[in-house]
User: Fold this.
Amino acid sequence: MIPARAAKPRDKAKVEAGVLVAQRWILARLRNRLFISLTEMNDAIWECLEILNNRKMRHVNKSRRELFDELEKPHMRALPASGPYEFAEWKKATVNIDYHIAFDWHRYSVPFQLVHQSLDVRATATVIEIFSKGKRVASHRRSYKRGGFTTIKEHMPKSHREYAEWTPERVIDWSKTIGPNTALLVEKIMASRVHPQQAFNAAQGLIRLAKPYGKERVERASGRALEVGAHSFRFVNEMLKNNMDGAIVEQDESPMGPTTNPETNEVQLPLLSAENIRGSGYYH
Assistant:
């Protein structure tokens, strides 16, 4: 069965011919009658329609009613028990790198293996269904929260499932074991991310820095990061790695160590001495 195209009456010629016959025959019988209400007019049309359907047609010697009862009625089925027709909207959506698709300003997860693929989305008032090549790969209850995420744990890659039970509050509480500056820095990092899981890795990295550098230095470096607005794990890590957090470290007291200019109070690094380095006399 092929659906008729819009504005193409020839696609359903028999239906259009039947409408034309009914229209002409009923209007002809009622053209001289005067009606004072819509109900009276509808009753008159119904009476004419019954007469039309029960009239025998010359080319088949049967009425329209007899043909309906004989050919069509035995094949008719009951209306579906699901209730009235449910309107659905379809659209294409590409899976983002965070294995979510966007629909109506909300994001819904799909299996992470479908990243970067173009999928079909069927949306009703209550359900979001997502299809790949005609096969349904995800179904979610529709959410109208703008900017929100609806994520199914099974859709996550294994590396993300480890953090599925974590919440931002739990991560912040864990970072408070280092100090208030570290906890505040973790909050700032989370606020800068679109998806909370992206901040969990950075927060865990900050906490792990306490093992090689100690909690005091991590807390001091986090405070410095907050002062300059550098809300990232990398900034804190580089500060600690290069002893830029203000910690006291042992300095080399040999002549090769750094010296301070008493006039300008600037730190000067000594020149290296090696056979392959030309001295200043080379250029005279």
